[in-house]
Amino acid sequence: MNISKKEYAQLADRYSAPSKLYITVPKAFVIGGLICCTGQFFNDLYIMIGNDADTASAYTSITLVLISALLTGFGQYERIAKHAGAGTLVPITGFANAVVSPALEFKTEERVIITPSQKCRCFRRVC
């Protein structure tokens, strides 16, 4: 099917719903902010336990990646991202989702088996 760019743009305009920026932008801002507040909570918790700031930051990143990987695995991250949009994409949780989602696509017999070529494919999506 050969169509011009102009015809393609007309088709895209016809079939894509316009986004309501006055709703989507605040939702992305609030949910992204909640993710960052959660990260700050864990960071403060790890410092309160007795870790130095650098170690606490590393533990916080690991915790957020683990939580978002679990949410992706249970199918909840996509539900949150549907409402939050870029609010879930920008923090480190978006990275974890981008790595775990392709791994789940290759799920076979209730086990996730990732070959080196699939691992490269996962990381290319992120970069």
UniProtKB/TrEMBL annotation:
Spans through the membrane: 21-43, 55-74
Q: What is the lineage of its organism?
A: Bacteria, Bacillati, Bacillota, Clostridia, Eubacteriales
Cite the entry's keywords alphabetically.
Membrane, Transmembrane, Transmembrane helix
Entry protein name: Stage V sporulation protein AC
